[in-house]
């Protein structure tokens, strides 16, 4: 068995006693780099029980102490930033530059977790009635859980457990079975920062392990990022078991290109936003809506896309890496063929891409479609590959209507030089995250990641103030004290110890 990945239970990195193991592979070569255990029920129970026990003491730790843990943690993450990125690159195939960005966006959330005290402040009104005051307190919930995807193995776990733990909860993380190594390294650094035993647990596995977490009565919240069908399942099962759930699902993100936009900026941003990270990100731009005269820019867009190519993680000339698995590659190939069969014009076909020296990698080259309509599967489905489809519109109003008909609402952007057009777009579009001359409008962590409609199931979103509310509950106290009860007299002493 090659490089067995441990579990983290009760503060101990331990080998599982399971007989069911999965292979972790390098997507650039498909060589096995580690063996992953599917945790036994007894091990899952031990992890949850340890988190529940740790909560009984952790919830009483002073807020400044929790914040200082996060300060130490973000310092260690920065110190080990490059080595974390290398680990991440080897299990995801991401280029080193992309992997560094993945790690850094996670660090930004940890920095916000260090500001937890100001986000845990309640409210007070004095004299709501005669001699009666009312005030609220923000308190942690208990054991929280995160189920994370393959495409951002540093950023998305760091969306979850630092804020939950800083708010006074404990946490059980189940990372993607395809990319467990980064999460384990994050946990090692968290322990090195001084995290108490049991505050963070890590378990591994597939659906059976997820179902265990969804059904366990001790777990109070579920955070999930992944595909639409799984997000729906997580939300339904989690809420049926009376848990608070935030489930981030699929996307079909559109960029509206107005004819008055800066053409060079549009093309550069559109290429990077569509094929960057091999298109394997829920905020990738996978649809360009060319309005009016912008339709004439298609040949230049095609030429720009044809110049970018995938490659190994340490190839400084590579624009992006491989897809995560042969199955992912086959799915993208199938959708490209369906687009051709359904009448779209395949301007660039990336199915025959090869990378020198890496013949077994899951490579797909940049792929561009024109002549696409909203009935085609390449428009309706989230491709999750380096594929951009182009639609045309005669007006901004038509573009807005097109986007609002789409079932997803994760992100969108408009490129224009006209402020009135931008304002109309941001006001009327029914999408949670909007970019104006910004292709991928992922907010910094003092805001929240606010996907809408079919891209999100739940009420409170990831990171920012909404995440703090997700991981906490509000207690409201109404207090009355009577003047007659104030002690008096010469023998009155006050013990301040």
UniProtKB/TrEMBL annotation:
PANTHER family per record: MALONATE-SEMIALDEHYDE DEHYDROGENASE, METHYLMALONATE-SEMIALDEHYDE DEHYDROGENASE [ACYLATING], MITOCHONDRIAL
EC number assigned by the record: 1.2.1.27
Residue ranges annotated for the Aldehyde dehydrogenase domain, each copy included: 15-477
UniProt lineage: Bacteria, Pseudomonadati, Pseudomonadota, Gammaproteobacteria, Vibrionales
Family under the similarity heading: Belongs to the aldehyde dehydrogenase family.
CDD domains recorded: ALDH_F6_MMSDH
GO MF annotation list: methylmalonate-semialdehyde dehydrogenase (acylating, NAD) activity
Gene3D superfamilies, per database record: Aldehyde Dehydrogenase, Chain A, domain 1 (3.40.605.10), Aldehyde Dehydrogenase, Chain A, domain 2 (3.40.309.10)
GO biological process: L-valine catabolic process; thymine catabolic process
Pfam families, sorted: Aldedh
Record keywords, A-Z: NAD, Oxidoreductase
Name by which UniProt lists this protein: methylmalonate-semialdehyde dehydrogenase (CoA acylating)
InterPro entries reported in the protein's UniProt record: Ald_DH/histidinol_DH (IPR016161), Ald_DH_C (IPR016163), Ald_DH_CS_CYS (IPR016160), Ald_DH_N (IPR016162), Aldehyde_DH_dom (IPR015590), MeMal-semiAld_DH (IPR010061)
